[in-house]
Fold:
Amino acid sequence: MAEHPAYPVGLRLTGRRVVVLGGGQVAQRRLPALIAAGADIHLVSPEVTPSVQAMADAGEITWRRRPYEEGDLTDAWYALIATGDTEANTRASAEAERRRVWCVRSDDADEATAWTPATGHSEGVTVAVLTTDARGRDPRHTAAIRDAVVEGLRDGTLVAPHHRTRTPGVALVGGGPGDPDLITVRGRRLLAEADVVIADRLGPRDLLAELPPHVEVIDAAKIPYGRYMAQEAINNALIEHAKQGKSVVRLKGGDPYVFGRGMEELQALAEVGIPCTVVPGISSSISVPSAAGIPVTHRGVAHEFTVVSGHVAPDDERSLVDWPSLARLTGTLVILMGVDKIGKIAETLVAHGKPADTPVALVQEGTTAAQRRVDATLGTVAETVRTEDVKPPAVIVIGEVVKVGPTAAAPPK
Ligand SMILES: C[S@@+](CC[C@H](N)C(=O)[O-])C[C@H]1O[C@@H](n2cnc3c(N)ncnc32)[C@H](O)[C@@H]1O
Structure:
């Protein structure tokens, strides 16, 4: 049976009866894909793992709580034989052969009439890798090939440009806080497929160096804006390139919608009918404290965290922040764009009742090679920023979480 290579095929199982014999680890691993394929799954086993039990409880599979019996494969289109009893598996595969039901056997690939490939998915494509014959089966090798292909497609190192239907338009991609590993899989793939990338100063700039030479990379800060505001000039550049039918990525630091003006750009594109997709990113407001060992919440310490822009001082009439209310909160305050105004901010918080000894941490250039953390209190932070020469970009964390570390005492139950 194994002298010829297996014939690869994709089974369309929606509503079709599939019988699974055994409820252990093999079934547990294979069931999610069968469920995703819409199969009508009948599982026969005296016992199952808790995860398989959860699938039965959720109505995703029908579970018959008994050992395999002759006749269980009646009307099946496909069977997975994976009981712990070799003798039962042999009887079941004989029944499958008789009834012409394709069957996979977990204990003996040679006796099976079908093999399960190592599979993975990337944006509408299923990658399935099969060994050529049963004797040469090396599941780790097939899984490694699958991983290499899927990861390559996801992170853009394996690009299939001639076969992809690329949609011209703009993708607003949240690039994360700076570490190139902290962009999403989707963001990285879109970046790899872009014709034009308009990038901010913050974000994963190292990724730009990896782009192929034909990709036009534009520094958003250097777009001349003459009679327009800088943001309008960026919007115009996005529109202009998209109108030429190019795939444009607007690469932004953190998340596009957290103080990122992402919606303004989306609105400008919508006004002229240019399609735009938004890819969320890991915001610096959470990831930068985390990179410096600070959890923004911690059981028994902080039950809330509030992210605030500090780009205008509390006494500035343009400020939309209710600083007196923030001073009354007991949780964590995370301030972005606040280095220049931290003196005024700390003063205002203390004036409205926040203790002057409240811990503060400033994390500069978080997640990059230049990351540094400087600690202070609300009473000392203005002076510390001066003496330590803290510079933007920095995330400022205010609250007791600053003092929580790996060696801290266990929080109250
Ligand atoms: C215009 S806001 C953009 C925030 C971004 N959209 C996000 O979700 O992280 C820029 C501010 O984010 C913070 N920031 C962004 N990346 C940072 C990093 N790697 N280290 C420290 N602060 C960062 C700084 O407070 C900076 O002034």
